[in-house]
Every structure is written in C-alpha cells, then in structure tokens.
Amino acid sequence: MRFLVTNDDGIESVFLHELVHALRVAGHDLYVVAPKREQSWVGAAKSRNRPVHATTADRGFGCPTWVVDGTPSDGINIAVGHLLPRTLEIDAVISGINIGLNASLGFIIASGTIAGAWEGALHGLPAIAFSQDLTHEVYENLKASADVPDDALHAILKSSAQHAARLAPELAAATLPRSFIVHNVNFPFPCHAHTAVRRTVPARVVVPGLFSPAADDGTHRLIFRLGDDLSPPEPLTDRAALTAGHISHTVLDYKKIGQ
Questions:
Q1: In-domain check, residue 215
Q2: pLDDT of residue 3
Q3: Three-state SS string across the chain, please?
Q4: Could you give the CA distance from residue 230 to residue 75 in angstroms, rounded to a whole number?
Q5: Domain with 121 in it: what CATH number?
Q6: Phi, psi (deg, nearest 5) at residue 193
Q7: What is the mean pLDDT of residues 230-248?
Q8: Is 0.85 topped by the overall pTM?
Q9: Could you tell me the residue range of the domain that residue 41 belongs to?
Q10: Residues 6+ positions from 36 with CB-CB distance below 8 Å
Q11: What's the pLDDT tens digit per position in 188-235?
Q12: β-bridge mates for residue 3, sequence order
C-alpha cells in the first residue's frame, strides 16, 4: 500500500523512525511529512497567521520526505495539496508512533498525533493514529536522554512498530474512502509480539487543573495529569485495555458527532 506518514513529536523522533522502518520492511510505499519540532497537544490547529515552510529532507527513510515548520495538520494538508504527485493515490494517512498514550476523550481531542490522522480523513482518506503508552518514570528518563530510548524501551518500540505495520493495511483496507473515520491504536507498556488487540471506546476522563498557579512573573506552566476516569465498567475503554496489557483499537467515527 501507499501511506502518507506524519507525527507530532517531530521529524527526529525515534518513534517515527521505527514506524517508518517497520512499514518499509513490510513492503509498503511511503511518503513522510513531519513537523520540524515537537507539536504535542496542538490538536487540529493550523497555522493561520503565518506562512509555513515545507522543505525536502533526507533522514535515511528511503522515501520522499518533507519537514514542515508547522503543525501535523499543516503538514498533511500541504502534502496532499502540493507535495505529492497529482496522480498518486494514497491508501491511508498514518500518524505516530506518538511518545505516550492518546487514550480517553480528554487526550484524543488535544492530540496532535490524532489530528494528523484526522486531517487525512478530512481529505477523504482512511486514517490511523498509533501511540505508545509509557510509565511516568520511563517518559522522564526518555526526555532526560534527549528522546533516545534505552535498549529495553527500544525493544518494546520495535515490537509496537511491527504491530503497526501489520495493522495498518488491515485497517486501511477495511475503511471506505470519505468515511470520516480515524482508527486510534494505543500500544501498552510493555508491548510484545504476542500482545492481543481489543476493540475499545474512549474512556470518559476529566482532566482539570492542567496548569500551575501563577508564578512570580505571572506565568502558568503545564502540569501533566492523567485525569480522573469516570467510565462505567462496560464497554471496555482504551485506558482499561492498556492497563490490562492489551493493544487498544478505538474507531473514532466523526460522522456520529451530533447524532
């Protein structure tokens, strides 16, 4: 298949590189467009008030690659409209693998990773978002090492990427064009070759108090919180599946909004 791949952690993210590598090994034709720098928690924002640069890049992917100094939504929009060959038919837009989970309503809406996939859905394409859950300690260690994973995390990431390469063509083939559907897939920590996939719904999580009180200079800073899960016992939620060690697959059907 032909996939257009993006992420919100930036072009240098090892999580993106492992996804691209796994998809290439699986034999798919890829086109990559990713932000120049991290764009986490930007949602579906587009750069309305400034021009966006898109430049060709070589990151060793073995496929056409572009870097944009904007959001994931900017990148997919520009790529589909201006960078890809006019006659090229893309089978799906893939976004990820995100550093950290994108599970529950509070996180899904804010996610730049899911927004990159959603931009593909807005262009009538099947769309898939992949994210890797991490413990707080593992995440902090990753950031302290400039996003270079240790051997244990790297092995887990490779396993998740292999799952992604297997799931991507299945989900793309099962999704009709112009369906306004995003497949949201979250990998548990740890994730292994035998880890099972479970269908889930977004957890009902409220996330209050994400910013600190004002400092002496009057500024507020983001404080990461997982929020409070208010979900009923059934059906199985994305958060519950991850806690149980399963791969969570949620179908985000945007046609149902307002119904």
A1: no
A2: 98
A3: CEEEEECCCCCCCHHHHHHHHHHHHCCCEEEEEEECCCCCCCCCCCCCCCCCCEEECCCCCCCCEEEECCCHHHHHHHHHHHHCCCCCCCCEEEEEEEEECCCCHHHHHHCHHHHHHHHHHHCCCCEEEEEECCCHHHHHHHHHCCCCCCHHHHHHHHHHHHHHHHHHHHHHHCCCCCCCEEEEEEECCCCCCCCCEEEEECCCEECCCCECCCCCCCCCCECCCCCEECCCCCCCEHHHHHHCCCEEEEEEEHHHCCC
A4: 35
A5: 3.40.1210.10
A6: -60, -30
A7: 97
A8: yes
A9: 2-202+232-256
A10: 10, 11, 67, 68, 69
A11: 999 999 999 999 999 999 988 899 999 999 999 999 888 999 999 999
A12: 30, 92
Residue 121 has a CB neighbour count (10 Å cut-off) of 24
| Nearest C-alpha neighbor of 100 from the set 233, 8, 219 | 8
Task: Give residue-wise pLDDT tens across range 145-195.
Answer: 999 999 999 999 999 999 999 999 999 999 999 999 999 999 999 999 999
Angle at 172 between CA 179 and CA 250, to 5 degrees: 70
Asked if 12 and 154 touch (Cβ cutoff 8 Å), the reply is no
Q: Is residue 258 pLDDT above 90, yes or no?
A: no
Tokens representing 27 are: 């034999």
The two three-digit tokens of residue 21, written as one number: 């590598």
